[in-house]
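Worked Example 4.2. Consider the chain below.
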Amino acid sequence: MVLSRSSSTTSLRLCILSALGVFAVNVTAATTDVTVADDNELPQVELDKIVVTATRTPTKLSNTIAQARVIDEQELKRYQGQSALEIVTRQPGFSHYSNGGMGTANNFYLRGYDSKQILVLIDGIRYSSASLGGAALNLLPADQIDRIEILYGASGSSIYGADAMGGVIQIFTKGNNVKKSGASVTLGAGSHDQYTYGTSAQFTNDTGTTISLGASRNQIKGFNATLPNTSKYNKDNDGFSSNNFSIALNQRINEQWLAGASALYSKSNTNFDDGNFKDAQADQENGAAQAFVDWRYLPGSSLKLQYGHSIDKSDNLVYQSIYNTKQDQISLIGQHKLPVGQGIYGLEYLNQGLDSSAYSIDDRNVKSAFLGYVLANNQFDAQANLRFDDNSQYGNKTTYNLGGAYHLNPNFRLGASYAKGFRAPTFNDIYPGFSGDPDLKPETSDNYEAFMEYNTLFQTTRLTGYHNKVDDLIASPAPTYQTLNINDAKINGISLTSDWVLDNYLFGGSYDYQRAKDNSDYSSRADDYNGNSLPYRPEHKGLVYAGYRLPSLDLRAEYQYVDDYYSGIANTDAQSVDSYGLFNISGNYQLSDNLSMTARLNNIANKKYITTPGYDTDGTNFFTSLTYSWF
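Applying the procedure from the previous section yields the following structure tokens:
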């Protein structure tokens, strides 16, 4: 089924309202059941979640210094049939653009930093393209993900190294927290002839063995991505298909020793528009695998040895070009409980390789060592990290961060932090064949942040202000698109998030204000962009939501607003992108002990908007699925 904005959406809305009607007709009965349910049957919503990415050791969100966010299994159910990109870009602080539907070229931004400056990990292993720099989140399916953690700001540079200057996104695959044996089958359908089907199975026994397997297929005919009167225009639908697999194996040897391995793999095909070719398409392979041994030699103290391998391969079938990134990573990470606080230390080795006929330089390695300290109690929170990286192309670099927070009372705290970040240029940045410059300097940044936070049993609210200065920013301004260091940029902003749970009702939202400006010295050049807005960074962005949750029911409505922005540093009228607002609803319902249903209706108002000039976006669209489980 393909829908256009000019056609009637009556049949679509009737279909979705019928599906969501299953939820509505059961609300009264479900509410009646709650009046006689005991406390163990009431919905459980945990606001003060545990996060690992922010400190490299399990820490409560209410004790982290840098802002962090956790998207758990319950929330991920609302994104069936979608990708990791669609999940994270609905979170506070994110903006993005795409050249069409599923699988097409895109970029995302977090607090003014673009995807090349944001590190993506899969189960602790680096995942990105060595040529482009960013991670292909649009090719990772939501159904193979158990949890996503987001770390905001540059503190990740001193914890994880280069490419974490703007933040860290860590994806945890399914199977690392198996509690009981079972299996499930999922079937789904949506707009534009989207169909998904998948199966998963988990096994656990008394000997400490857990196994998880998952496989799924996602395919869609898509919609026409390009707009008329553009050089890329082709009047055809741009389809996408992917086969996705995950596996996890863990063995508890004894109370001190745990060994395990996991992998996530996706093989996909994307059709895209090109002015010279009607049936342009690309094959992609993406994923990561890791194996580890964890020794807990004392309560609160451990040592973990991990090896990981990730891939990002793209084969453009039109231009016969291949870009195959391979990253190998070995790490030894230790935690030691101190009389006051927790000490963290580690050694890492990373090799980045790129198999492509386009480059003469296709390999580099990074050797790293780091130290960290975390304090989390009812009075003070503190974090300090120091990291040393030896890059085979760019030499030595030291980064660090220091932050602290004080609890004025059990519910209210104030905090501040400083972090030093850096990013090494990608292969595209330095290769002359792509207008690159082999003499580029790494980007460096100074990042200041202050916050106030108020937490109770019913809500958590945080107001964060930040000031970031980036030196030697790498960009490719028009008209030459020559990659160069344009001196510096300044990014200032505030972020407000608030999440509430009152009985069975959930509501809240977020608001982000940012000014991301070019602050370069153009005295030696004819063009002058000093003071111009950096591309794709809207000044205002917000989201509000309201929901209703029971043990067997979870309904959510949300409205997302994105302000005006420019697609290029020249800030011309041709580069202007108008503001837009999207209204979506989603729901999960447990039809029986074994059968559950999910449904999502996006862009209910059928809003016509674009995220980048020349490329269209989808109108009203839906997805719904049924899952049958055995226990």
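The CA atoms of residues 74 and 365 lie 38 Å apart. Confidence is low (pLDDT under 50) at residues 1-43. Compare this with Example 4.1 before moving on.
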